[in-house]
Design a protein that fits this description.
about 170 residues, alpha/beta, 3-stranded antiparallel beta sheet
Length: about 170
């Protein structure tokens, strides 16, 4: 596998990922490459422009908090960078919540053990569903966060559907 763009992709990923990602990768995720990046360029648009990665080859992982009464459930949504997750429709219903929104930054960071702006679907807490937009799987290789703002991962898009807790959802992107 070859990573997209003009990054120095390497299969030696341990020093470039957050601890929960290291643990999950050790359990087997398939071919995963990592590359260091400037953390100031971690946000998708800036990253793609600086490193020559097509936005359609970049996937974002967002943490959603769904609430019903006093109960809060979390989910991760993986969508192409060219789209947005349908938080108030598809995701809210999937979480059986009355209200759904992006999880507060402090909650997302504390619960995942990852840096904000680098959260990835690899290594998330076990009970969380990982909702993967079906359009993501149409790509050969996608770039996602590494759990840190200072690096990115590249992997076959199909591997996202094989993650523990993953569910492929049609029309997740609204």
């Amino acid at each position: 596998m070859k990573g997209p763009g003009n990054l120095p992709w390497t299969p030696a990923v341990e020093h470039l990922v957050a601890k929960p990602v290291t643990v999950a990768l050790a359990a087997g995720v398939g071919d995963v490459l990592a590359a260091p990046i400037d953390p100031d360029l971690a946000d998708t648009a800036a990253f793609c422009a600086a490193y020559g990665v097509d936005m359609a080859d970049s996937a974002n992982c967002v943490v959603i908090a769904g609430r019903r009464g006093d109960l809060t459930r979390y989910a991760a949504c993986v969508v192409l960078a060219t789209t947005r997750a349908d938080v108030n429709g598809v995701v809210r219903k999937r979480l059986d919540a009355r209200k759904a929104s992006f999880a507060p930054m402090e909650d997302a960071v504390t619960l995942t053990g990852m840096e904000f702006g680098g959260i990835t679907p690899i290594g998330l807490p076990a009970p969380w569903p990982i909702l993967v937009d079906a359009a993501v799987l149409d790509r050969d290789v996608v770039v996602i966060g590494s759990g840190l703002r200072r690096s990115k991962l590249a992997l076959p898009a199909a591997a996202l559907a094989e993650l523990p807790g993953a569910e492929v959802v049609r029309d997740l992107a609204g």
